[in-house]
Amino acid sequence: MPSFAQTHSRVTTYYLLEESRDLRQSLLKAARWKKTVLIVPALASEFTHPENRPVFVNIVSELASANYLAHVIFGLDQASEQDVRELTGILKKAGLQNYVLQWNDGEAFASVYHEMQENGFNLDQRGKGRNVFMGFGVAMALGATTVGLLDADIRTFKRRQLDRLFFPCLVHNYPFAKAFYARWNEQRLFGRVKRLLLDPLLLALKRKFSDSSEDKMLRLVDFLLSFDYQLSGEVVFDAWMLKKMRYALDWGVEIFTLIEVFRKAAQVAQVEFTRHGFDHKHQRVSTADPSGGLHRMSLDIINTLLHALIVEEGLEVGEEFFRDLALTYQSIAEDIIKKYSDNAEFNQINYDRDAEERMVNQVLAGAIVQAADRLTAPAHLAEKMLRLTASHPEFKPFIDAGLQQTILAVEEKIRDQSLDLRYLPSWERILWKMPEVSGLIVDAVEADKARFR
């Protein structure tokens, strides 16, 4: 029997105690007065590459029976016209009738991006973040009241998993729901960034904030720790809250979404997707290359979390903060790795403890140090320059002219740039400045609909 404990005052956990129950009738009933929309962001390679295509075809086939969905938006990146036509063939063959095309590389949506750029909204950084962000805009332009997000690379997807995810928002009126599941394939544990970076890092922060009585920071960290799988990409929003949320463009998107939810929602839900293994596409570790793989993902997550705590929540830190944090993180991570090793042996699952320890020591701990360097290096340099200029009379004319104030100003500028993350504004802000944008989006959707149907 799985656990059914409820341990956080703001998070309701929906445990999967009965797998066979079909929730569609309850969802259909609720959908009579709510408009439910699902967004599926996808690269063209996810349905054109022979290795990926069966995974995508299974997802589409399962979605065809989700009859409580008013629309399914397919946000397409790196797709040619031929790719889009191939997609429509897959959708029609599966019997999916209520699909909407968001062809980001096509002329119709290119004009929408251009108009938004002209109005000061910088959307030049392509990728999943921009794709999903525009998908939210399409959903709102279509009048959605409940909006879900589903990745296109889930190898073990079943429609009932999506039913469970929508249930808290659609039936019980929660403003936000997030999926959780075990990342494993019945032979090996996955979810390394969550297990080896995020959990021990949050526990290290909790220990530091508990010692220093930082109650405000502690509440946020406790909220993040209450989610069983913080990095899952399967979420559902109530449209009113979605309009108010900012959105990240990089691998920090999931953790930043939870931080925004913490700030904007009183009660939220997490839902157990499945009690079996749940398998996504996996990333390489990329030990020596911080620009790719799990290395890049880890850096983005650390930067996003520290930016939220230091820049947005006002946490005051010094050089010793990061040194202590890195040491505490490593100690906690090593303890956690032993626990995973013991659990794997108990279940007779393959577990490479040496590889997990190398990832912590050679990649993840170093990523924390890199973040520290970006924050503290300007301060150290400024301190040395201030001492030098103050101790030599030759600098007095320049000091009188404002040299030291300039040093401090440049130090502050560099510090801000070091933690400058690319956040997209809320759709509420965009709609305020561009009330016509929903019409532009609908025109783009209709133009592509006519082109491909």
Verbal overview:
- With 453 residues, the protein is α/β, with parallel strands linked by helices.
- The protein has 2 domains: 11-185 and 231-282 and 424-452, Alpha-Beta Complex (Spore Coat Polysaccharide Biosynthesis Protein SpsA, Chain A); 192-225 and 283-421, no CATH class.
- The chain is 56% helix and 10% strand.
- Strand 3, helix 4 (81-94) and strand 4 form a beta-alpha-beta unit.
- Keywords: Membrane, Transmembrane, Transmembrane helix.
- The chain crosses the membrane at residues 132-150.
- This is Glucosyl-3-phosphoglycerate synthase.
* Helix and strand pattern: EHEHHEHEHHEHEHHEHEHEHHHHHEHH
Total beta-strand segments: 10
3D shape: globular
Enumerate the spans where pLDDT stays under 50 for 5 or more consecutive residues.
Answer: none
Q: Output the number of helix runs.
A: 18
Throw out a few tags for this protein.
453 residues, alpha/beta, 8-stranded mixed beta sheet, two-stranded antiparallel ribbon, globular
Short description:
It contains 18 helices and 10 strands. It is α/β, with parallel strands linked by helices. The chain folds into 2 domains: 11-185 and 231-282 and 424-452, Spore Coat Polysaccharide Biosynthesis Protein SpsA, Chain A (Alpha-Beta Complex); 192-225 and 283-421, no CATH class.
